[in-house]
TrEMBL record:
It comes from Mesobacillus maritimus. InterPro entries: AsnASE_II (IPR004550), Asp/glu_Ase-like_sf (IPR036152), Asparaginase/glutaminase-like (IPR006034), Asparaginase/glutaminase_AS1 (IPR020827), Asparaginase/glutaminase_AS2 (IPR027475), Asparaginase_C (IPR040919), L-asparaginase_C (IPR027473), L-asparaginase_N (IPR027474). Keywords: Hydrolase. The keyword Transport does not apply. Belongs to the asparaginase 1 family. Its EC number is 3.5.1.1. Coiled coil: none annotated. Pfam families: Asparaginase, Asparaginase_C. Signal peptide: none annotated. Residues 5-192 form the L-asparaginase N-terminal domain. This is asparaginase. SUPFAM superfamilies: Glutaminase/Asparaginase. It catalyses: L-asparagine + H2O = L-aspartate + NH4(+). The active site is at residues 13, 88.
Amino acid sequence: MKKTILLIHTGGTISMSEDTSGAVKPGAKNPLTEEGQILSSLANLIVEEPFNLPSPHITTDNMMELKQLLERYNHSTEIDGAVITHGTDTLEETAYFLDLTVQANFPIVVTGAMRSSNEIGSDGLYNLISSIRVSSSKEAYNKGVLVVLNDEIHTAENVTKTHTSNVSTFQSPQFGPIGIVTKQGIFFHHMPTYRENYTISNLSKQVILIKAHIGMDASLFYAARDLKVNGVVIEALGQGNMPPATVPGIKALLANNIPVVVVSRAFNGIVQDVYAYEGGGKHLKEMGVIFSNGLNGQKARIKLLVALARTDDLSEITEMFRL
Ligand code: ASP
């Protein structure tokens, strides 16, 4: 029997076309809506288009709107799965946000495309078909929000965009995909070991992301304090170390009860308090910096936004980042 799939279009290259000058942009009509016949042979589709935005235009309000839309269907209709089409630039952030916060009892798959609808080798329709197939499969349950492109199934938590233009851009460094899509079926070969889900009702705090570099000083950290941001994520060096000149700035943030979360700018491995020199991981931890467990910078930022939507308590936030 055909499954009922909620298909939510949000924009991105998958919903754009190339003009004669080679420029890629959205048109008056989403080209995916022209594909009704092929898609409806796969599933009964309920189509929603809450907005049509390139993904650099997506805001936290848009992410909350998507969460609420999914939850509305969770409460009201018999849905077997959901697929969200999204621009690839920020796809991993929306997917991870939904993974952390949506309460739904059906699989959710996020997909996109690297080549727009009328380009040679366009991957949009193919990725959408794969995603409908994955979201319709019973094996997709209880694995969190999934990201499906280029015949691979990734977890929202681990996947990241690794290439500016290649169709195999989405990778899960260190872990790999958890399944594959073939002509004959959907095959999962790994199972996530844990799931996190948090109830939130708003996403209104301000969290900024700062990347560390050689010779860095404290000025950006003082600026963050003066801007009264609610949280700071630092993509630190190696296992979680910072240049010594940044330390007074990080201390100033902590003295103002602004949580500071450290991830690594290296895209494999986790941060740990290993080094005991000025600005080293041990020193940062003693100061009260929170160490994140393997997330990249943009996802740690999403997690800190979610944490701050629930609590100001530093020990609770620290505990959330232990997972
Ligand atoms: N810049 C586009 C976007 O994120 C890229 C894409 O969708 O692949 O909207």
